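Translate sequence into structure tokens.
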Amino acid sequence: MIVVMWRKVLGLLLLGALCACTQPINRCETAADCRSGAQCLQNVCVYDGEIDSQACDRPCATYEACSALTLKCQPRFTGLVVSPSDATVIDGGTLSVRAELRVTPGFAANFPETLNIGVSRGDGGTVASLPTTTEGDGVYTTQWNPSGEGAYRLTAAYPEQGGPSTTVGLTVDTTGPLLSVVPTASPSREPDGGFIYKDPAAPSAWRRDQTATVRVDSISADLDPQSVSVLVRGFDGGVALEGLTLALVTPCDGKAYCATVDVPLWKPGLPAFRGEFAVEVSAKDRVGNQTSGKGSIPVTRWKWRHGINSALITAAPAVGNKGVLYVGTTNINNNDGRFLALSEDGRLLWEASTGAVVASPAVGNALPDGTERVYAAHRKASANRVGFYAGSSAFITPCTDSSLTGVLVQSALAIGQVPIGSAAETVYGVYAGRVGGTLFAVRPDAENDPQLQCPAIANVGDVVAPGSMLASGTSVVLGTSTGRLKSYALGSSGLWNSSAQWDRPLGLVSPTSMAVANGRIFGGSNDGTNSRLFTAPLDGGQDPTNTPTGSPTWNASIGGSPETRVVAGLQNNNLLALDAADGGTQTIQTPSEVIKGAPVWGAGGYVYTASSTSGLIQARRPLDHIEWQFDAESPIEASMNLDCSRATDGGVLSGMPGVLYAASQDGRVFAIVVDSPGLDSTAPWPRYQHDSRNTGNPDTPLTSCP
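Result follows.
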């Protein structure tokens, strides 16, 4: 600053010379030649900074300084800077205020002990004085707690009248941004061809396997887009879903913010058949005020229902390699019925009026052309036919019909692989009531010879409903109504060997379905109070042993986690669970409900059961706890089936829930979205006839649902 002043003085000297002055002003040899407060630089008095106030033309105020150069009172401070700055929006919390006096260079600081800091309403309301703390070096602080929203004026002023003063405008905002949360309406699909797609009890609900879109809007211009988050709460304490991604929407229809979020409805917890998911959206404005908006999404497990007129369903439906559901029906006399192919999304693919289906159908391996054979046994009037469908309603019967009165294929069909000649796929069944029980095999790929395509052997014993048969390696195992457990095999000629591979007494006369685990066969019996749960080696190496149950013991299945348990429904309104390792049993009450169909062991620890008394379908996890239930309002005797979610081409959809199929006795087929993505792959025999294709073969891979 001294150099600057010196340049000014030299300029004055030059001006004097130009004016023909003969003596420079303020000429000096030493500082003593100058007025007080000046320096002698290059023989010129240089005046800089502050001198005693008495030297000025008037006494200076404390916020002023007497300039040595001008001998006038000048502002001691260049300014008073306040933080927060003007036009700041703040929240309603405690506000820290900072004020700083900045000193004019060359002048002494002489900071006052305090400043006057006050707040008034923007409309001129009462001023509130704030206590101030001195931090030193001209810095003063205070805190303010706003009394409410609105515009305010904050003023910091030197304590003496006329001193520096600064006023800033502040807006107090304590309200978060306004939010609108609007889930889109569920897609509408009207009844079609006997299919009902809307849940009758919740017609506006979304399906559990769908993705719902939620729109989030705001008219608040101060909303911070980065702060918006969405939480979807599961129903009735079910697990919540968070971390969903919002996608901005344009145009925004005059709103300040618009976005959508997709909610995969199979992810939040739903420990019920139907319920509502709460959608909670939170957001902040730019000062941190938080707000929330709420919406709800009604959700149901109902996928579809198909009603088949004048039909009775007792045979377990089968699911094909690409998710097609095959359902056979009968009538009260078991002499007429239909066979239907239904898609996973609820369409009738084809239908055949071929005759009654009592034995559960079975689906073969996928063929190279993408089709598959669906094996079935039909009875039309007194004619029994055995054959297969291959992608259409045309029924192909390589075998000779049986027209004997009283003959009926009642047991489930089973599928094995017997590599003889050009044929491998082999389907087994028994004509009950024909020549002491006639065991047949259907081998479509055998040479064009009826004996090789349909070899049969008589007097094996009748297998009656709900009994079943197993395919094991190149053999078939059956439990007969004569109280025997037998195994037969085709010889190298392609015909049946003349005698059984092994033949063991069961100690009971009405075996129900069988299941296999760890090389052992397990099954129940319908023998009144003499009913049993029996077990025998799969290779027939020992006579069967049994556990008395005291009540008819229906179709069994076997779960594998955490221990291998054989479970079957009892006629006395109980489920019986037998530990396959140590033989220990557990009884689980099913009040007023008799479970005849085999329990279905689904992925994720679920077990699904259906009542032959009322039609009540229950999801259990664990076995003795009912997580949710659904009333089909008609008895369900046929064992249920479980498959993956499927794409339109039949491919398995990854990460999606499964579909449970149930067929009631009054001819209605239900598709229900469940949390199990298919069958439990750890279970040795997770459902009736082992797998979703009803092959009755422990070597058939379970459908993988990634």
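Note: The chain has two helices and 55 strands.
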